DUF4184 family protein
Amino acid sequence: MPATVPAHQAAVLPLKLAWPSRFDGVALVVGSTAPDLAYAFLPWWPFGSTHTPLALLWWALPVTVLLSTVIRRLVLPGAAHLPLRRLRLRDYAACARVRHRWWTTLSSALLGAATHIAWDQFTHAGGVVSWLPTLVSPSPFGVPWYKLAQYASGVTGTLVTAWCVMLIAKQRLIRRWHGPAEPPAGDPAKWRGTAYAVGAGLALVAVALPQGTLPHVLTARWLWAGVLAGVAARWRTRRDWASLTRRSRR
């Protein structure tokens, strides 16, 4: 399957690059992962496929809006503690103070998830693939054409995403769109230590749980773990952030 991260983001990052003011970049990216995030709860997931048009409304939209809010308000401020270097990760802390209009966030969330579902329709058994016999016929490489499309689009998507991320870093586009990030509050070692420790612990739990060796399940669990690690680090340094907020209001 095209990788939940970083392949699927190739469908939405160029939109943000082309029209930065028209889209909520956080909602676009989270939405492009949302249909796969339910895999984290296998084998206990009771609600059926999250890769259908109807699932855009009952799963992808609410999950994307919730996660985008959590990431923007609790996780992204901690980006100020990350290494600067080539990817300019600290710049992403500026996204924490951005508030888009509600319809921009909702439309970006739906669009991101829709690109994921549409992409998978042509690269997975079932869906559109079941209607096009050519896609299930064997290719010269010994696998069905839809599988070949799966592998090729996954590699291509990963390369496109990498190019977009490097372009954002090289041109400092986050700063251009949203201004400079706020200075980090508190002890960076405290934030990093908490984030890394919680993230590593949850990553190990993800492997130990049933179906933890399946790549799509493990990827989804690690994405949830990353968000929770960021939230834990923010909670650990909450007093530092509260102090910074009080000073900024004076």
Notes: The two ends are 52 Å apart (CA to CA). The mean pLDDT is 93. The chain is about 60% helix and 0% strand.
